[in-house]
Write a structure and sequence with these properties.
The protein is an all-alpha fold. The protein has one domain: ABC transporter transmembrane region fold (Up-down Bundle), CATH 1.20.1560. The protein contains eleven helices and no strands.
Length: 330
């Protein structure tokens, strides 16, 4: 089996690079184009508001508004192309991973037939390969895109008003602590969920009639999966609540400090408007970065379990060992 499993690298990013590196480079280039345009609408918005309050010429305001619309259109079309390209890459990755997993698993299951092995094969081909493949399209381009937007917008905000930007960054920083901690708890539950699902699949193959004893054990497994799902939901939505709270506190602080600076004549109203728009503009990218990190940790775990299961299938444990043992030893 050493030669067979060698067709799948040990880490998910090794698989991404080996199978889609040319596409990843093209997606990264499109991501750079999108985030390079992200701060420009904020500057145009600031100039439009300031020109209007200063009673600037109508022609200048109209041209700025047209420029804003053109930039928004260009950014939107580029992002549309990026998302469609990602979808195509992800779809091909799902197809490739399912086909590869099926070939490798079928080969060794044929050599060592058992209900547990068949259950693991079914779980890997039907359910486990899809989230891994879907991650491939966004594996590199998503952090480049969203991280680039965050850096460009925060850089612009520090450029126009360092005091407000510093205060907002201080309110933003607690997320750098609680997000990884909560995500690690989610990942642990996701790993246990995959292993339990494999046990369910193996038990279904081993005992389709579900005798009273095995039926009770299956019910326990299904209840345990429900408990894990609810734990994941609680952690996920609690993290979302805390992230939204930090964002709104940042907006409130920007309005308070910005309003005071505008009233005292230190900055223009357009700067406050652009700053608040900037905070709104970084909220979604930061949420997308967190979602990517969440997905990456879960997918990396699923991929390790999948590769580990292929090794386990090649050398099955003693009779009666649960199918989930593959993941536990991977």
């Amino acid at each position: 089996m050493e030669a067979s499993t060698a067709t799948l690298p040990p880490h998910v990013f090794g698989y991404v690079w080996r199978t889609t590196r040319a596409h990843q480079l093209a997606l990264a280039l499109l991501s750079v184009v999108v985030f390079a345009l992200s701060a420009l609408p904020l500057e145009l918005q600031r100039r439009i508001v300031n020109d209007a309050l200063r009673k600037g010429t109508l022609d200048a305001i109209v041209w700025l508004a047209l420029a804003y619309a053109a930039v928004a259109l260009l950014e939107g079309l580029t992002k549309l192309g990026l998302n469609l390209y990602r979808g195509w890459v992800s779809g091909n990755a799902v197809r490739h991973l399912r086909g590869t997993t099926h070939v490798l698993a079928s080969r060794v299951v044929g050599e060592h037939p058992s209900p547990e092995a068949e259950g693991v094969e079914i779980s890997m081909v039907l359910s486990e390969a899809e989230p891994i493949g879907l991650f491939v399209g966004s594996s590199l381009s998503e952090p480049i895109l969203q991280g680039g937007i965050l850096l460009s917008v925060f850089g612009y905000m520090f450029y126009i008003e360092p005091l407000m930007a510093t205060f907002s960054l201080l309110l933003f920083s607690p997320q750098l602590v609680f997000v990884p901690l909560i995500q690690r708890a989610i990942t642990r539950r996701s790993r246990e969920r995959i292993q339990t699902l494999r046990e369910v699949s193996g038990a279904i193959i081993a005992d389709p009639g579900a005798l009273s004893g095995s039926a009770a054990r299956q019910a326990e497994r299904i209840d345990h999966i429900f408990e894990l799902d609810m734990g994941i939901y609680k952690l996920k939505f609690s993290m979302n609540f805390l992230m939204n709270l930090m964002h709104h506190l940042g907006v409130a602080g920007a309005l308070g400090i910005g309003g005071w600076l505008a009233v005292t004549g230190h900055i223009e109203v357009g700067t406050v408007v652009a700053f608040v728009s900037g905070l709104n503009k970084v909220n979604d990218p930061w949420g997308d970065v967190v979602n990517w990190y969440r997905e990456m940790t879960v997918v990396a775990t699923k991929y390790r379990l999948l590769v580990g299961a292929l090794y386990w299938l090649a050398a099955p444990p003693a009779s009666g060992a649960p199918a989930g043992a593959a993941g536990a030893r991977s």
